[in-house]
Amino acid sequence: MTPSVSLEAERELIEGALFYAREANAELGLAFVAEFERALGVLCNFPHLGPVWRGTTRRFLLRRFPYSIIYQVKPDEIRVIALAHRSRRPEYWRGRK
User: 8 in the Ramachandran plot: left (φ > 0), alpha (ψ -120 to 50) or beta?
Assistant: First the structure.
């Protein structure tokens, strides 16, 4: 499967990495990005690993960080629509495709 990350999800990844780099250290910001990339790789190999969460949307929890990858499985693509913090603004991403 080919990964596809929405612009909004890319922005959330950058914002999260900058937050961790600013509040803790640069290494933690890089670890956040690395964990996202690891999780996305897992999903490309096992697209149905994340449970169905809302309609056709699935959720996969990151390790070590309180974020979830919100994604949809397309015929040949994993479409990441959000990188959502698990305790902030629930379901703000619902209108995304």
Answer: alpha
pLDDT, one tens digit for every residue, the chain (97 residues): 899 999 999 999 999 999 999 998 999 999 999 999 999 999 999 999 999 987 889 999 999 999 999 999 999 999 999 999 988 776 666 666 6
What is the C-alpha end-to-end distance of the chain, expressed in Å? 18
> Token digits for 76?
């040949």
Residues 6+ apart with CB under 8 A from 65: 16, 20, 32, 35
